[in-house]
Amino acid sequence: MAKASGLGARLFVGGYDISGDVGAVQTIRSSRNVDDVTGLDKGAHERLLLLRDGELQFNCFFNPTNIAGGGATDQEHVALKSLPTTDRVAMYFHSTTLGDPVAALIGKQVNYDWTRGAEGSLRGTVQALSDGYGLEWCQSLTAGKRTDTGATNGASVDYGAVSTLFGLSAYLEVFSFVGADATVKLQDSADNITFADIAGAAFTQITAAPAQQRIETGLTATVRRYVQAVTVTAGGFTSLVFAAAFNRYLTALS
Amino acid sequence: MPAAKTTKRYRATRGVSVRKSADPKSPDYQEFVEFAAGDVLDAAPKHTDWAFLLETGAVEELGEALAEVSDGES
Lengths: 254, 74
Prior knowledge:
The complex is a heterodimer.
Chain A: E1 10-13, E2 16-17, E3 22-36, E4 47-61, H1 76-80, E5 88-93, E6 101-109, E7 113-116, E8 122-130, E9 136-140, E10 146-148, E11 152-153, E12 157-158, E13 168-179, E14 183-189, E15 194-202, E16 211-216, E17 226-232, E18 237-248
Antiparallel strand pairs in A: 1-2, 1-5, 3-4, 4-8, 5-6, 6-8, 6-9, 7-8, 9-18, 10-18, 11-17, 12-17, 13-16, 13-18, 14-15, 14-17
Chain B: E1 3-12, E2 16-19, E3 32-35, H1 50-56, E4 59-70
């Protein structure tokens, strides 16, 4: 893969696609605290890695569009104004190509700040800080937003000819939903022909939108070369618009 | 003396999806045969990777079933 610009990106927050209202992403931070434990007898710093952290900060343009029954078409003001006390999932898609990088976090939206410029502009700043997990660089399981009109097997993402042994985490944003229920789950395969559900990699059943979730499998789960996002249903659905990404753990978490 | 042929049968313990064709050029390649937990996989395609499904615990063996009876062919 060659060097790439930030053109073609998307930003999803809390089950809303606010890509059209966001002009810049100031910060995509994935970091670790460190403890300086340098002894008197050392000639250079010794450091221990401590807690993970993550942050996503962006600028937005004021857009109060609020469609009755909304979700899929509501814009940034509806999505961001409430400063919910519960965690939100925020996902920055580098592109709308399947398998491309996605920065994802689950955390607190800590502000919704606006500046009305003397020339008449109205610009907002929003910051989300991770909660319980750091920001994770994932791979997209959907090419941006995906629309299913019934149970569907999505295209698979190919990691290369090896399996990993440390489980995965995955993120889901649901923008709109029409139907009784749907469940998004992840399946893996060694040959891209025969797929099986990955234990612990099914999101909570969807019955309404907007919705969001982060899941994590057991940390010793084998994840094979090919992974796909599959939608299944018990009572049926006619439309599900969602985006998903997953982070294949390459080493044991520490 | 007719010889009985048997075939192994499997039941899914969780969701399983198998492409209808193993040939990427076939239109059926994009289509899947789906099984939910509890389904017996009698309709699984021939190219199903049983070793993978057994290794992951996605299916369990139900034992052998009589598949057909032939006239002396083995």
